[in-house]
Specification:
Blueprint: H1 3-20, H2 24-35, E1 38-40, H3 41-47, H4 52-59, H5 64-71, E2 73-76, E3 79-83, H6 84-90
Antiparallel strand pairs: 1-3, 2-3
């Protein structure tokens, strides 16, 4: 193996480790900056790369992930919102 290839592999491995160790506070603050303290269903669906109708159906089912997301749910009249900080925690971003 050439020395250049070995350096490229090491650099690639180091950058992958750096990405895995991204600061969760920065990730949560970027979510708060983008969506504010509350997200609507469309915002949450776009963040999860799902359709709003598909996410709505999924949130009616049961499961550990669904319980965490529904725990962040806030209903004001007929409108449904999700607390951004709790969504970040449920998704492991925090």
């Amino acid at each position: 193996m050439s020395a250049l290839r070995a350096v490229e592999m090491r650099t690639s491995r180091l950058s992958a480790e750096k990405n895995r160790e991204a600061d969760p506070v920065i990730a949560e603050s970027s979510l708060l900056k983008r969506y504010g303290p509350l997200m609507n269903l469309v915002d949450l669906a776009s963040m999860l790369d799902r359709s709003p109708d598909g996410l709505r159906v999924t949130l009616r089912s049961s499961g550990e992930w669904v319980d965490k997301i529904n725990g962040a749910r806030l209903q004001l009249g007929r409108r449904v919102y999700f607390r951004t900080a709790e969504i970040a925690e449920a998704l492991g971003i925090r």
